[in-house]
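Whiteboard transcription, Tuesday session. T.W. wrote the structure tokens on the left side:
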């Protein structure tokens, strides 16, 4: 077997990458990952150094792990700052660590390519990652927002599993937004309609655009909104720079969807989505000034309308946000898996993950009781 490590996706043949991962899931597309490098969002001093693993056997690729060496834990959405602190307090370095994830994107999707003809491909890949990480002094490997079957397979191979709760919308063959609202209890349905009416009463209109219909000026406007809103919330700029929005995103074609809000025909806010063949991903939002309920309209309700119109089965609006529950987004479990190189920390992380899973599952069950849907005589 031969394990190759690529420090730039540009060194991997694009057709090979597409044969492994396809072009449907937007955040693992070759052009998306290449664009992140070319715009400086990954590589350089970003703390996201590409480190892609390709495992071959007798000249045939049997496994691939897109990965990044991380010098921090920003942009991952599976929080391990306490782990880094524990390593430091005990005189060890937590960074660099190895992460398989879609950068800056808490969206579950494909994470590894495994040759279906080799039943041991995953085991061989994991052995190679472990050996290389130990040689390089890497603290461990973290696979984030992993699809459930792969996560379970990694657990069987000894990796710890963490779980978090996100809130997703599911298309139950709805024909319209009103059809969706008919599943709500009367009181919840009235509340949501009042929110939408309040947006219109403020003199706001919204337009949904896709792919080539989004102009260069609109991409520039979105970047402005994104950075302004990020600075208000966090006190610093966002992870993604102007080139990401003005150079990379326009190259992604119909995978991009933008909702723009106008007041007196002037744009004042925008929400950015990405889409696959069956899923809409809500990713970024920004506004020049605050308007009542506009965030919900642009980031949730217009997304639901788009998903229904396009026949998409799911809408993943991103991490966190209990306010999504009363708007019909259901609590679902997401998974990540973790291999810890240092035996002295491995058991502690395993115990932490086990306790956390119990708490997360209890929270998911409690959150499900708050959904707005009709019950009994509603």
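and on the right, the sequence the group agreed on:
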């Amino acid at each position: 077997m031969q394990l190759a490590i690529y420090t730039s996706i540009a060194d991997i043949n694009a057709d090979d990458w597409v044969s492994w991962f396809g072009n449907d899931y937007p955040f693992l597309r070759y052009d998306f990952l290449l664009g992140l490098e070319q715009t400086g969002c990954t590589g350089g001093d970003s703390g996201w150094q590409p480190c892609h693993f390709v495992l071959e056997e007798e000249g045939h690729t049997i496994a691939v792990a897109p990965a990044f060496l991380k010098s921090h834990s920003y942009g991952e959405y599976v929080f391990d700052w306490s782990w880094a602190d524990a390593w430091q307090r005990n005189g060890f370095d937590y960074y660099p660590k190895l992460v398989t994830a879609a950068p800056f994107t808490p969206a579950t999707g494909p994470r590894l390519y495994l040759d279906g003809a080799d039943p041991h491909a995953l085991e061989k890949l994991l052995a190679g990652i472990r050996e290389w990480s130990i040689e390089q002094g890497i603290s461990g490997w973290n696979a984030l927002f992993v699809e459930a079957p792969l996560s379970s397979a990694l657990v069987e191979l000894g990796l710890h599993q963490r779980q978090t709760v996100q809130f997703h919308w599911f298309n139950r063959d709805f024909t319209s937004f009103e059809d969706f609202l008919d599943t709500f209890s009367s009181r919840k349905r009235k509340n949501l309609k009042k929110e939408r009416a309040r947006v219109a009463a403020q003199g706001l209109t919204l337009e949904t655009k896709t792919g080539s219909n989004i102009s260069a000026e609109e991409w520039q406007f979105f970047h402005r909104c994104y950075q302004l809103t990020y600075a208000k919330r966090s006190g610093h700029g966002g992870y993604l720079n102007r080139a990401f929005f003005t150079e990379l995103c326009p190259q992604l074609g119909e995978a991009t969807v933008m909702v723009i809000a106008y007041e007196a025909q002037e744009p004042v806010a925008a929400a950015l989505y990405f889409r696959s063949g069956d899923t809409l991903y809500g990713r970024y939002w920004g506004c020049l000034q605050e308007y009542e309920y506009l965030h919900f309209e642009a980031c949730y309700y217009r997304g639901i309308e788009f998903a229904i119109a396009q026949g998409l089965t799911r809408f993943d609006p991103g991490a966190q946000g209990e306010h999504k529950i009363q708007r019909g987004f259901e609590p679902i479990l997401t998974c990540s898996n973790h291999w810890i190189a240092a035996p002295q920390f491995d058991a502690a992380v395993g115990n932490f993950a086990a306790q956390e899973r119990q708490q997360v599952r209890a929270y998911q069950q409690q959150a499900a009781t708050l959904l707005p849907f009709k019950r009994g005589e509603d």
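Someone added at the bottom: The domain at 172-312 is CATH 3.40.630.30 (Aminopeptidase).
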